[in-house]
Specification:
mainly alpha; 5 helices
């Protein structure tokens, strides 16, 4: 719940700014309103990528647990190649999971409402690249984990 509040805080601040800009009126207000609409669209795009992959955290947690349980049961006499593969995959799953939560923490800690228009555009573009990388890391590690679990007869 706390993470959700931290995640939504910048959204609420940005929407508040939109209301202030739209209340100004006049031709300059229209220009500011267009800018705010553009920023909201960029922000929505970033959040959409986050929302698409966030559910994968449960897949990551489940895969990590299954791999660790399998290792605990079968580590004696385990093929070194399989043991190494499991270790690398667990690290990738951990990194992907941490990447998501690091990104969310950074997103929540950034005062987006205080940014100038050009600064905000750069920020949203940069964050889009970051969250796309997080998404790719999550998808590929989950896919590889599912493949391993299937080979082990656990999926």
């Amino acid at each position: 719940m706390k993470q959700l509040k931290l995640f939504l805080m910048p959204v609420v601040l940005l929407m508040s700014m939109a209301l202030v800009f739209s209340a100004c009126g006049g031709s300059e207000g229209k220009s500011e309103e267009e800018k705010m609409d553009h920023l909201l669209d960029l922000q929505d795009d970033v959040v959409r990528v986050h929302d698409d992959v966030m559910p994968l955290t449960s897949n990551i947690n489940r895969a990590r647990q299954q791999i660790m349980d399998y290792y605990q049961e079968h580590h004696e006499g385990m093929d070194e190649e399989l043991e190494n593969r499991m270790g690398v995959l667990l690290q990738r799953l951990n990194d992907a999971h941490d990447g998501m939560f690091d990104w969310m923490g950074d997103w929540a800690d950034t005062d987006q409402a205080a940014m100038e228009y050009d600064e905000a555009i750069e920020y949203y573009n940069r964050e889009m690249e970051r969250i796309k990388q997080v998404a790719e890391d999550m998808r590929s590690s989950v896919s590889d984990a599912e493949e391993l679990l299937e080979e082990l007869g656990l999926n």
